[in-house]
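anyone seen this seq b4? input:
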Amino acid sequence: MNTIIRAGILLAMLPALLTDRAPRAGAGENERGDVPGWVMITLMSAVLVMGLLALAGPALEGLFQQAINKVSK
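predicted toks r here
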């Protein structure tokens, strides 16, 4: 399928996708949304940040010490 045709199909489907997910005017208080999805995204983000800090922590600490040493001279 041609890329232009795919883009056209996606643009045609966009309003329907947005209106299906938008809050409705008569929505009751029973609709809580996707709480487990947000919890999973938050936890995955926290794990990703901890992993990056574990890998890059020593290098960042070295850069920080170099910057402090240059400023304090």
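The CA atoms of residues 27 and 44 lie 30 Å apart. Residues 35-72 form the longest helix (38 residues). kinda curious what u guys think
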